[in-house]
From TrEMBL:
Region feature (Disordered): 1-39
Listed Gene3D superfamilies: Ribonuclease Inhibitor (3.80.10.10)
Entry superkingdom: Eukaryota
Domain At1g61320/AtMIF1 LRR: 114-329
Protein name: F-box domain-containing protein
Organism classification: Eukaryota, Viridiplantae, Streptophyta, Embryophyta, Tracheophyta
Ranges of compositional bias, category Basic and acidic residues: 28-39
Biased composition (Basic residues): 1-13
Length: 335
């Protein structure tokens, strides 16, 4: 009897075991199937234009990273519109003095590769910072070529800073802005190079914001530029030491903010823009003619009696002034 029970028990265990093993194999097959589906899943089904827009909102480094793991973003990376090419965004470390090392060469190679990848695809914004130019394993021809790739019809923002201590100053090629390439630019920031626009060149008609930092540009050259920038709303001039006479033309009907900081040779600022609202100035005493529309004035005085100047000159010079901020080594006044 015990043997029969044993016989009956063994097949029962076998059947249970076989059922269990089949269930395990079936469960394993289902798990693998689900896993395969997960691996094949690449995100929600969206129009390609939507993927491109989402991608364009990312910072450059993040955009490049997701392009490495996503086919959708990899396609949109080829036409990524906002390029910020600095040592930081390209993931290169090291101080300014390490320009002769592999860092400089890597930066040049990565910049070249990214810009060539975007040739002819419609860059909307380019930020390019080069420290200790031209000692950064690149030449002026390289820089001209890179700018030529990016500055095409449709670009809206151009930011170029060279941080150059070299005696031979880089001349920004004004010809890049001709043939329609400059008509779409809304924001232009140039730093530590020369900009020599000539008369009769109307190439920046969409420009709303202009920042010139430590630039080689004369008053006449700046006037040539401003005379074609009829949409300009804000003008910022910092360390532009070739400026002596600064005149803001009356055709700048939209100009509301003017900032002038430490232009050492400046003697006269004459504003004819009819709707200038705010003026911010720091530096030595200059002759000012600001117009009756000005309401906010910020002066950081250096080496002159700003208190006497404010009391004697400003009431008749800016009759509609509502806010006056005066900073000096001895006193700070907010009126």
């Amino acid at each position: 009897m015990s043997m029969q029970r044993g016989r009956h028990r063994r097949p029962t265990q076998g059947r249970k075991g076989s059922v269990t093993s089949v269930a395990k194999r079936k469960g394993s097959h289902d798990d693998n199937s689900r896993s395969d589906k997960k691996l094949r899943y690449s995100g929600p089904s969206l129009p390609e234009a939507v993927w491109h827009h989402i991608h364009s909102l990312l910072p450059l480094r993040d955009a490049a990273r997701v392009a490495c793991v996503s086919h959708s973003f990899r396609r949109s990376w080829r036409c990524f519109p906002n390029l910020s090419l600095t040592r930081e965004t390209l993931g290169l470390k090291g101080g300014v003095d390490e320009i002769s090392s592999k860092i400089a060469l890597d930066l040049a190679k990565r910049t070249e590769h990214i810009l060539k990848n975007h040739s002819g695809v419609g860059v909307k914004a380019l930020k390019l910072e080069i420290r200790e130019f031209p000692f950064f394993s690149t030449s002026r021809d390289d820089l001209n070529r890179w700018l030529g790739i990016a500055v095409r019809p449709g670009i809206e923002e151009l930011y170029l800073r060279l941080y150059s201590s070299h005696a031979d100053v880089y001349n920004f090629p004004c010809t890049l802005l001709l043939d329609g390439s400059g008509k779409s630019i809304r924001h232009l920031h140039l730093g530590e190079c020369a900009f020599r626009p000539t008369a009769g060149v109307g190439f920046l008609r969409s420009l709303t914001s202009l920042e010139l930092y430590d630039m080689h540009i004369t008053g006449d050259e700046l006037m040539c530029l401003l005379s074609s920038s009829v949409a300009l709303e804000k003008l910022t001039l910092v360390y532009c030491h070739e400026l002596i006479f600064l005149e803001i033309p009356s055709l700048l009907q939209r100009l509301s903010h003017l900032v002038v900081h430490d232009c050492l040779n400046l003697e006269v600022i004459k504003n004819k823009a009819p709707y200038l609202y705010s003026f911010e100035y720091s530096g030595a005493l200059v002759r000012l003619s600001l117009g009756v529309s000005l309401q906010n004035l910020d002066i950081d005085a250096s080496g002159w009696d700003v208190i006497h100047y404010a009391g004697a000159k400003l009431p008749c010079m800016v009759p509609n002034l509502e806010a006056l901020n005066i900073h000096s080594s001895y006193v700070v006044i907010f009126l």
